[in-house]
Write a structure and sequence with these properties.
- The chain has 166 residues and is α+β, with helices and mostly antiparallel strands.
- The chain has a single domain (5-165), classed as 3-Layer(aba) Sandwich (Hypothetical protein yfbM fold).
- It is 48% helix and 17% strand.
- It is built from 6 helices and 5 strands.
- It has a 5-stranded antiparallel beta sheet, with helices on both faces.
- The N and C termini lie close together (10 Å).
- This is DUF1877 family protein.
- It comes from Isoptericola halotolerans.
Length: 166
C-alpha cells in the first residue's frame, strides 16, 4: 500500500455545498470513488481519478513549470481529513489555470529539463512490484497525460476539483 493522490470533479454548486457540509461531501466523494472503480472511465470522462503514487514526482515537475499552480497540495481545506493532510479544493478558476499549465508543456519537455527519475524516491514511487525501474519515466508520463486530460475536462465543464492525499 502506498500514498495516493486522488481527485474528484465537483460542479461549483456541489463544491459550495461540500464546503458547508462535510458529511455530505464525504458521502459524495465515496460514491464518486466507487463509480470510478466500477466503471473504469477514462480521465476525461471520470468524475473521480487517481495518479496513484506518481503525485510526488508530478508535484516536483509541475512546481518547476508553474510555481503558482499546485494540483497536489494546492487549494483550500475542505474540512475533511484525507489521511495525509486535509482534503483540499481548487476553485473552477484554479482548475482552468491548472489545465492551461498542464496543456502548455508536454511531459517530454518537462522530463527533458531535468532528470525526472530523481524525484522518484524509491519507497513511494514507483511501486517496484508493479513497475520495474526501467518503466518509471514512462509511467510518470502516462500519469501526467491522464492528469492533463482530467483537468482539461474539469475546466471545460466549469468544475472545481477536490484533492485527496491518502
Amino acid at each position: 500500500m502506498g500514498r495516493h493522490c486522488e481527485y474528484a470533479r465537483l460542479a461549483a454548486a456541489d463544491l459550495d455545498r461540500a464546503r458547508a457540509d462535510a458529511a455530505w461531501a464525504a458521502e459524495l466523494l465515496d460514491s464518486l470513488a466507487e463509480e470510478w472503480v466500477e466503471l473504469d472511465l477514462e480521465p476525461e470522462d471520470a468524475r473521480y481519478f487517481s495518479v496513484g503514487r506518481a503525485w510526488g514526482p508530478l508535484h516536483a515537475l509541475l512546481g518547476e513549470l508553474a510555481p503558482g499552480v499546485d494540483v497536489v497540495h494546492g487549494g483550500t481545506p475542505l474540512g475533511l481529513d484525507g489521511g495525509l493532510g486535509p482534503v483540499r479544493a481548487l476553485t473552477p478558476s484554479q482548475v482552468r489555470r491548472a489545465a492551461e499549465v498542464l496543456a502548455s508543456a508536454s511531459f517530454a519537455t518537462l522530463a527533458g529539463r531535468d532528470d525526472a527519475t530523481r524525484f522518484c524516491d524509491g519507497e513511494d514511487w514507483p511501486d517496484h512490484a508493479e513497475h520495474p525501474d526501467e518503466e518509471r519515466l514512462q509511467v510518470l508520463g502516462e500519469r501526467y497525460e491522464e492528469l492533463r486530460r482530467f483537468c482539461t475536462a474539469a475546466a471545460a465543464a466549469g468544475d472545481g476539483v477536490v484533492l485527496m492525499l491518502n
